[in-house]
Design brief:
The protein has six helices and no strands. It has helices at residues 3-17, 23-36, 44-58, 66-84, 88-102, 111-123. The protein is elongated and about 55 Å long.
């Protein structure tokens, strides 16, 4: 399992769950990414888009364009993926959810079981792993 795999899992999860992005959320995401030192890993065009929208909103502007909102959503997903990629429990949970859905006979009683299943899958050698 590489870093790309966990990032793809998190991106799929966020894309299916994340609705619209509001400007105060962008401000919080930017602060968090800067604090963690991850802001510079985000693509420069997306960083510039987020910074310009934050500045525009702070000056009293309102973002209404659907295409701009879609681009902001993609930028927010990219920032969140950078922030959440290092969280082992989240990656293990997402792997556990996928395993429960794909492997017959597996039953989980809660989030702890899903995380434990994901950690067991991560510790299993590649040739013994079921596909996720």
């Amino acid at each position: 399992m590489g870093v790309g795999f966990s990032e793809a899992l998190i991106e799929d999860y966020l894309a299916s769950r994340l609705g619209g992005v509001k400007p105060h959320v962008l401000i919080a995401l930017r602060r968090r990414a800067v604090r963690l030192g991850l802001w510079w890993r985000v693509k420069p065009l997306r960083r510039a888009l987020v910074d310009s929208v934050i500045m525009y909103v702070r000056r009293g502007g309102v973002v209404k364009s659907p295409s701009l909102l879609a681009q902001l959503r993609q930028a927010a997903i990219e920032v969140l993926v950078q922030i959440l990629a290092g969280k082992l429990t989240l990656v293990a949970y997402l792997i556990g959810v996928r395993l429960i859905g794909r492997v017959k006979g597996l039953v989980a009683n809660g989030v702890r079981d899903l995380v434990a299943l994901g950690i067991m899958w991560l510790n299993t050698p590649n040739w013994y792993r079921p596909d996720v």
